[in-house]
Amino acid sequence: xxxxxxxxxxxxxxxxxxxxxxxxxxxxxxxxxxxxxxxxxxxxxxxxxxxxxxxxxxxxxxxxxxxxxxxxxxxxxxxxxxxxxxxxxxxxxxxxxxxxxxxxxxxxxxxxxxxxxxxxxxxxxxxxxxxxxxxxxxxxxxxxxxxxxxxxxxxxxxxxx
Length: 161
Known about the structure:
By secondary structure, the protein is mainly beta. The protein contains one helix and 14 strands, in the order ββββββββαββββββ.
């Protein structure tokens, strides 16, 4: 038997029919054991996939919501659907853009939810960028001037206040 140990910030892993999976105790350290002759792939994102030649299945996990503030930009990673519903995000207008780089100034506070894409935002006067991507709920303050560097096509809901 081979084993793999990984660390997560997962609240409550939920096993979905994976024969031969040894369920770890709820903690931040997890171990998987599988026959050493098998191949496996682990993708630790908002979902964890465990696949071998002999066994295959899916381990679903909900990631914790994390809020950070960097250079005046507030980012909520993995907001719960209840928060998005409460804000009415799905009824907000949509905007999208292909990979590009352009300056932008916010004439009002903007809250947006990225459906897809990846962007690095550089606030004016800073060489440091703020990375945002699909699944992020982001708040840009009124008056902020910045440069958007879009590396993957963006699709987002947005609301100006």
